[in-house]
Structures
1.
Amino acid sequence: PLALALTGVVRRYSQGQGAIEVLRGADLAISHGQSVALVAPSGSGKSTLLHIAGLLEQSDAGEVFIDGIPTARLGDGERTRIRRLSIGFIYQFHHLLPELSAVENVSMPQMIRGLSRKEADARAKDLLTYLGLGARLTHRPSELSGGEQQRVAIARALANAPRLLLADEPTGNLDPKTSDHVFGALTELVRATGVAALIATHNLELASRMDRRVTLREGKVVELA
Ligand code: ADP
Ligand code: ADP
């Protein structure tokens, strides 16, 4: 099955007296191991699309298949289970827990899934070392640079070996050079793990390094060259 398939996804929000239809029958298919950049202006519905693909938000119509499983009619419990099992998220701001070290931030989602601390720490250290943070394992987020914090967030998102990685402007708050570095590490890890990825970015240079580029036009997903 495809890692992610959206078919005919509709999402409207009420605003004042009226409503706006942000997604108007959006279709998108991403196979395993494929990386897709979502490049579209602010307000076009990128976050909405990512939230729906990540089962954080319900669509008003259409279907969302994760690894072939239709999710639109599932209850919250099942959706949360699939999200935890199959999907990793990276945000513009890292949302790391300030009291925990880099390793602990990455171990935590694995321990929630039932791994022992020992197993979880071992995988966390591997991932962080791969991302060039081998000398920062016991540092807390406040002791790390912005780029390092975001690399910890990348390790955390991939800690549970998700089938699908969703990222909303993952390097949006970093300076161009750091952004380039972090994006490089991210795309390398996406390749190495074979995870399917949908990454919203404003940066066309970064988008050009991914397998496909799509945009949103009038609530539909449109393939770019
Ligand atoms: P993007 O991520 O591309 O900037 P969003 O998905 O955040 O776009 O938003 C798309 C449109 O939907 C915007 O006009 C935004 O104001 C509107 N919108 C998003 N979330 C809500 C909400 N919870 N309630 C009302 N309108 C919303
Ligand atoms: P937790 O395991 O902390 O209870 P969930 O299972 O609800 O979290 O969510 C799994 C992932 O989705 C986590 O990475 C969490 O940060 C993220 N998440 C949950 N709710 C939202 C939301 N409303 N917007 C963005 N991300 C969310």
2.
Amino acid sequence: ELNLEIPVETKDEIGSLSQAINDLAKELKQYRDNRSEFFANVSHELKTPITYMEGYADILAKDLVENDEEKKKYLQIISEEARRLNVIINDLFELSKMEEGKIDLKLMSVEPTSIIQRSIDKVQLKAQEKDLTIRSKLSPVPHIFVDSNRLEQIILNLLDNAIRYTAEGYIQVSLTSELEGVVISICDTGPGISTEELPNIFERFYRVEKSRSRAYGGTGLGLSIVQSLVLQQGGTIHVESKIGEGTRFKVMFPSITSSSLKSHSFKI
Ligand code: ADP
């Protein structure tokens, strides 16, 4: 157990060395705590679908259900839970690769409009099924230096959340060129997230309490993956939200300007 704390009594080298060791011990403890919490979460998330599958499979195996409709329903639940397990495991795998810095990013100069348009097209059907309109306003912007598949993954993930959590209204996607770079904004008229909960939503497995009910699908890992992808490509992600009004995610990537290209070629 690392509950070590060396008393720091002097201001000389020994004092600062002791302080440094104390800081390191504290950091290590935090790392260990986070890790245990992470494993506890993983176990819980994996266990829940398995418990459902076991339960319904047992009932079917014991031939306790006579009604065919009922049987079909149980089989569907089992299949849905298996699908959910698969999604969680894929997300975990992706996240672990990212944390080890093992994902291959094929960074290149990209014009984001067509990627955003393609992402919107892909989720259009899902939005229509819920009677949600996707509005978009995509202005011409400078190129950015990203992996186009990963950019699509980021946008699809944010759009998927917006559609899943919004009951009625619309989703607005915009692309603009601002002083700090190219900004992609995805805004919805969903339930919103409270100020207290907002800072936590990028944490692994974090779900806002009221939507913790499994009804919304999702693994609680989506935004962690999105944030990690954005940061690894030199971007930033921000969120603003108001309960009862909606949520806006803003993803920014530095634009490639002629001066950044020049400094790049100078380095070579
Ligand atoms: P999940 O797979 O549960 O959607 P995410 O990591 O994508 O996990 O999101 C974390 C949590 O943040 C969600 O469970 C939800 O409570 C909240 N959230 C994310 N996007 C939105 C949104 N557009 N509107 C309201 N709540 C959201």
